[in-house]
Amino acid sequence: MRGAKGVSDRAHTAASALKPGDIDWKKLFEEDGVRWFHTGGIFAALSESTAMLTIEAMKAARKAGTVISYDLNYRPSLWKSNGGKEHAREVNREIAKYVDVMIGNEEDFTAALGFDVEGLEKSVTGLDSSSYKKMILKAAEKYPGFKAVATTLRDVKSAGFNDWSALLYYKDNFYQSAQRNNLEIYDRVGGGDSFAAGLIYGFLTGLSPEECVNYGAAHGALAMTTPGDTSMASLEEVKKLASGGSARVDR
């Protein structure tokens, strides 16, 4: 029953020293034609300058018509020496003004933006999707710029077994992925990032909202069966699992 522990270990990295003016966003978004810009709360929490750089990038992306997605990724260990939860909310609420697609889990929306999930236990067990839908509707009302809101639903039974699914709100409708109970976890790091990647892939390739959330959930599930936070899953594996495939051997 030992809980998983994550260590960000980003102090003194080149990324943490980035500041406004370091990157030519106009070239990327207006000249090179980047279609989608994605970043998240871990990068914004690394330093005061990375939070400012995030906002600078989003302003440039919005001007160019580039889609902006943001994974809240609240990490208490990164914010504790940087103003704590109060400052995290201040930064993330400002960033949220520029976001088209907001992504996060139950703790992210509560800690980083201040939206409570009704009836959620402190241990974050026994997830009820109807409570999440109410929370998402509040977020969408507060930030009308959100074109889509997505959240992963993880019920941690133990470090080795989690129930896993995802929820997408898009154009006034909710779409829920397939529910995977007792998903066997090899390494849970990267599950959320891989969900975001699958979701973004779906939108960029013109899949339906239902397919988008299922690609995201399938990719996240597969990432947690491999070590580290970098996905080792192929597109074919994601497609197979998202369409209802099983763990049966493929010879």
Account of the protein in words:
- The chain is an alpha/beta fold and 251 residues long.
- It has 2 domains: 33-146, 3-Layer(aba) Sandwich (UDP-N-acetylmuramoyl-L-alanine:D-glutamate ligase); 153-245, no CATH class.
- Helices cover 42% and strands 17% of the residues.
- It is built from 10 helices and 7 strands.
- The longest helix has 17 residues, at 48-64.
- It is globular and about 50 Å long.
Jot down its keywords.
UDP-N-acetylmuramoyl-L-alanine:D-glutamate ligase, seven-stranded mixed β-sheet, 251 residues, alpha/beta
Task: Annotate the secondary structure layout.
Layout: H1 25-31, E1 36-40, H2 41-45, H3 48-64, E2 67-71, H4 76-79, H5 84-96, E3 101-104, H6 106-113, H7 129-142, E4 148-156, E5 161-170, E6 173-176, E7 180-184, H8 191-204, H9 209-223, H10 235-242
Parallel strand pairs: 1-2, 2-3, 3-4
Antiparallel strand pairs: 4-5, 5-6, 5-7
Helix pairs in contact: 1-3, 8-9, 9-10
What proportion of the residues is helical, as a percent range? Answer: 40-55%
Radius of gyration: 18 Å
User: What gross morphology would you assign?
Assistant: globular
Structural class: alpha/beta
The number of helical segments is: 10
In CATH, what is the class of the largest domain? Alpha Beta
Q: Which residues form runs of ≥5 with pLDDT under 50? A: none
Order of helices and strands: HEHHEHHEHHEEEEHHH
Q: Major beta sheet, specifics?
A: 7 strands, mixed
CATH topology name of the largest domain, in short, is UDP-N-acetylmuramoyl-L-alanine:D-glutamate ligase
Mean pLDDT: 93
